[in-house]
Design a protein that fits this description.
Mean pLDDT: 86
Radius of gyration: 24 Å
Number of strands: 13
Shape: elongated
Oligomer: single chain
């Protein structure tokens, strides 16, 4: 894009693109993207609209002492690492952002949890204000931990060299979600215009052949849902995510299966913001005692700023997606027992808002 046309009170003016001024430091571009992260927001595959996205951290200190320019979180529960360059983007920038992603994956969750909790809350409010749907299961701590290990990577610069674009396209073919954004710059008296352009759009999951991990997860959940049948109300299509969730007839509370690398977990989750009426009812030892008696399992209670979770799990061997029959049957039986108990117990102690 080399020109734009603006309308000032009926008078049209043509403004030509200009080089990004050398005196505009990288910090200037950083402030713009920090205040308007939609600049690099991914598109909704169905509507073509920009997805809601918020800043988790700015100038995040990494274990090496380096600083990541921006860490973002979008409405799918996907993190974006954003590296900004004032001038030309050269190929060593690709190595830089890959290194940042590797360092971020090794950081302790506790070092980021407060920032992630705040971002999650802002994003939740933003989605609800826009009339959108909030996917509870995509924003659990466990789900976000997994997403942090395989984030979307974005490099932003005024000029991006062709060898950089070639490397990025090759990495995309290997299944790495990485993109380069250039932008056209326009200015006139009293205003500036930045027009972003995604130079390497990433092919979405539904448009490229499924990866082996996706295939294994989908096959596992297909088998688990077949075993479950209609014992728990569900109309689920087998997903490729590490979890499958089920409603229990009330807003802000649900049950799920979750597969970690070598363990299968059954869990009950309650959103503390939505269901304060339930929290005191389930926090006491009587709830855990009755849950154990009902299911025959030992349950662990975990709590974050946003959610209260009760979980029990079983060792699935070296790979949960290849779990033996006994573990699969345990997962189904325990989920059914949890569902029957949760529906009865929670309804007894709460003013229920039906789903």
């Amino acid at each position: 894009m080399d020109r734009i046309v603006i309308n000032r009170n009926g008078e049209l003016a043509v403004i030509a693109a200009k080089p990004f001024p050398e005196e505009k430091q990288e910090g200037y571009l950083h402030r713009i993207l920090e205040s308007e992260p939609q600049f690099v927001a991914p598109l909704d595959n169905e509507t073509g609209e920009l997805l809601p996205i918020v800043v988790v951290a700015s100038k995040l200190k990494l274990p090496s002492g380096d600083e990541l320019d921006l860490l973002l979180l979008d409405s799918r529960g996907v993190f974006t690492l954003c590296e900004l360059k004032k001038g030309k983007v050269v190929r060593k920038t690709v190595g830089q952002i890959l290194d940042y992603a590797a360092q971020l994956a090794e950081m302790a969750w506790d070092d980021l949890q407060k920032q992630i909790d705040r971002a999650r809350q802002r994003l939740h409010e933003q989605i609800e204000q826009a009339g959108g749907e909030w996917d509870e299961e995509s924003f659990t701590d466990d789900a976000l931990r997994d997403q942090l290990k395989s984030p979307r990577l974005v490099i932003v610069g005024w000029q991006i060299e062709e060898d950089t674009l070639r490397i990025v396209r090759w990495l995309q073919q290997q299944g790495i979600n990485i993109e380069c954004y250039g932008f056209s710059y326009f200015s006139a008296e009293n205003f500036e215009v930045f027009v972003p352009q995604n130079l390497t759009p990433y092919i979405g999951e539904e448009e490229r052949p499924p990866r082996s991990g996706d295939i294994r997860r989908k096959a596992f959940w297909e088998d688990m849902l077949r075993r479950l049948g209609d014992k728990v109300p569900n109309k689920r299509t087998p997903p490729t995510t590490p979890w499958v969730s089920f409603g229990i007839g009330m807003v802000g509370a649900w049950i799920s299966w979750y597969g970690s690398p070598s363990r299968l977990r059954v869990q009950l989750l309650i959103d503390k913001r939505k269901r304060q009426d339930l929290i005191s009812h389930v926090r006491d030892d009587a709830f855990l005692r009755e849950l154990k008696e009902e299911t025959g399992e030992t349950w662990e209670r975990r709590e974050t700023e946003a959610r209260l979770r009760f979980q029990t799990e079983r060792d699935a061997g070296t790979n949960v997606w290849e779990a033996p029959e006994e573990v699969r049957n345990w997962g189904v039986d325990t989920l059914v027992k949890l569902y029957n108990f949760a529906v009865r117990y929670l309804r007894e102690g709460a003013v229920v808002e039906e789903e």
